[in-house]
Amino acid sequence: MDFAATVKMARNKLKMSQEGLARALNVSYATINRWENGRTHPNKMAKQVFISFCMQHGIVIQDLMEGYVGESDAPYKKRRGGWEQ
Fold first, then answer.
1. What is the pLDDT of residue 6?
2. CB-based burial of residue 66 (10 Å sphere; 0-12 exposed, 13-18 middle, 19+ buried)?
3. Which residues contact 8 (CB under 8 A, 6 or more apart)?
4. How far is 45 from 4, CA to CA, in rounded Å?
5. pLDDT at residue 74, rounded to an integer
6. pTM (two decimals)
7. How far apart are CA 44 and CA 3, in angstroms?
8. Could you give the residue ranges of the DSSP H alpha helices within 1-85?
9. How far is CA 12 from the centre of its chain?
10. How far is Cα 25 from Cα 38, in angstroms, rounded to an integer?
11. What averages of pLDDT result for each successive group of 10 residues across the chain (85 residues)?
């Protein structure tokens, strides 16, 4: 699943508008819109905030977290049975 589809899926699961998700992530509505339409991608910090937000709300997004595993700035480590910080 690409990032655009992931953002939309997470937002729909949370029953949030683009504006609501933008407020929750402290970004603009236009940013969420661009992410969902695939026009831009978040920087590492914004992606990390998005992943943390999803995890706090019970949405696990392994496709996005895979990119962090093994990197020096990895915020999550894969453990048996799931992910942990």
1. 92
2. exposed
3. 36
4. 17
5. 43
6. 0.71
7. 13
8. 3-13, 18-25, 29-36, 44-56, 62-66
9. 13
10. 18
11. 89 95 96 95 92 91 53 45 51
- The answer to whether 76 and 69 have CB atoms below 8 angstroms apart is yes
For the chain, domains (ranges, CATH) are 3-84 (1.10.260.40)
- What residue type is assigned to position 70 of the chain? G
Which pLDDT score is estimated for 30?
Answer: 96
Q: What are the tokens at 68?
A: 């962090």
- Residues forming a β-bridge with 79: 82
| pLDDT score, position 69 | 37
The Cβ of residue 39 has, within 10 Å, a number of other Cβ atoms equal to 10
Q: Calculate the CA 7 to chain-centre distance.
A: 6
Residue type, 64: L
Q: SS3 of 42, please?
A: coil
